[in-house]
Amino acid sequence: MKKPNLGSIYTLPVTIWMTIFFAIPMLIVLVYAFLKKGTYGGVELKFTLESFKIFADPIFLEIFAKTIYIAILVTVFTVLLAIPTSYFIARSKYRKELLFLIIIPFWTNFLIRIYSWIAILGSNGFINNFLIKIGLIDKPFMMLYNTGAVVLISVYTSLPFAILPLYAIIEKFDFSLIEAARDLGATNCQAFLKVFIPNIKSGITTATLFTFIPTLGSYAVPKLVGGTRATMLGNIIAQHLTVTRNWPLASAISAVLIIATSIALIIFTKFTKSRED
Question: Alpha-carbon distance 81 to 269, whole Å?
């Protein structure tokens, strides 16, 4: 008697979950992108490519390019900070306590953490008040509502998602390999770049994806601290969903963003695998 395929049974709950909460919503977004806007919001069941004309708008293309630029900046800074941080934690005898400090931000509401940065960087915030008090400046200077503020706070919110997968890989790394490389004449920098980094590529890949993809669709950070100078695609999508109530246009932007992200993910994954081979 043939045994039942238990693997399919075990993965059935995950399959159902992914179908209901991932595949079906994405399919709805893709379908809405090709429908006509309703008079009072919603959609009409008429096929049209009207929504995709926005991708010929120079202003929108500028926002699209700025979104990718910010996402790349955030990803680079986050990964560059996460690698030495994860290394330090993995080598420290206080790793449990340090990991606890990394996880603590997850216990705090996301918006509260953003508003705490506003309290620090704002015109009446801690930094400006401190600098005025010690006489370095006469009046507050603007540290919010620009691209730099969006990048800084996005890096802060993304760091835990990059540190944890990197730590999981670095903890298993055999550090005697670095010592062996030094004994064979490699400098500290050469040992780090040619021995350590190649062995933690999977962690770097995961950290990159966990940072880049969420930043592409970021809404709250650019909305609260970016102002008009750092508007991103997430803000445009939200505006068309809630203000103009143009659901097909919001769906078209979301669909293209999903497709572009998927293509980038596939290319990045294949490139990483080819380098490992």
Answer: 22
Q: Is 39 helix (H, G, I), strand (E, B) or coil?
A: strand
Q: How confident is the model at residue 263 (pLDDT cuts 50, 70, 90)?
A: confident
Q: Determine the Cα–Cα distance for residues 237 and 65; give it in Å rounded to an integer.
A: 15
Q: Please identify which residue in the block is written with the tokens 């449990």.
A: 96
| pLDDT (0 to 100) of residue 14 | 85
Compute the mean pLDDT over every residue in the chain, rounded to the nearest whole number: 88
b (16+ CB within 10 A) / e for 176-214: eebeebeeeebeeeebbeebbeebbeebbbbbbbbbbbb
- Structure tokens given for 271: 């490139």
Q: What is the dihedral of CA 48, 62, 82, 190, to 10 degrees?
A: 110
Task: State both tokens at 136.
Answer: 């370095």
* Cα 171 to Cα 175: distance, rounded to the nearest angstrom: 9
Tokens for 50, please give them: 């009207």
Residue 83 has pLDDT above 90, yes or no: yes
Assess contact for 209 and 165: CB atoms under 8 A. Answer: no
